[in-house]
Amino acid sequence: MLDFPDGRRVAKTLLGQCGRRKTLRTSLAGNWLASYFSVGDTILDCGCGYGRLLGELVKNGYHNAVGADFSDGMLRQCRQFTPHLTLVQADAETLPFSDDSFDAVLLFALLTSMPMENQQRALFSEVQRILRGAGLVYISDLLLNIDRRNVDRYERFAEQFGAYGIFQLPEGVRVRHHTEEWIRFLTAAFDCIAYERFTVKTMNGHSSAAFQYLGRLR
Fold it and tell me: 75, CA 20 to 30 Å: which among 47, 56, 67, 175?
């Protein structure tokens, strides 16, 4: 496991598959931005939600940020917070950007809402395509937990969804908690710069293991 500096807590909102707004606490590490990003970088926040993370980027001087989200409702709210930024309605599996368009892509709490392996593979194929040479991917998401409540639902849904860690919430939303091995598989085209495990509050108020990853495209 690699060392990763502590980050600042920010809030980010997801729109679940059932169409309800879900809140998940994630981290934005300002020292990572200062160390590895340049203020002139073109940064894509993929799954930007209502724009909290974009707002944080702008406050820190990153004005070439672009937001993409599949939800028109989320983007309408986002425009109220960041009216001067480019916002695009898009499916993360088929991003409407040219090859080599971005210096960095942020995937904050996105993988958990795209739980199926084919979805996540398609996402990372697109990320690699739109990143410029030596571009950065910055991921923040949830890991597997070992408490009885989570293990029970991992086991209950493993056969139905074809992977341990994917489960369905009572309201019908499918989500995923990830193994570190799977994250290494998804990021095989990147060199890991930094990694951290920490604990976060989930969308339903429970504690969960979480991680952040920063990698550079080879």
Answer: 175
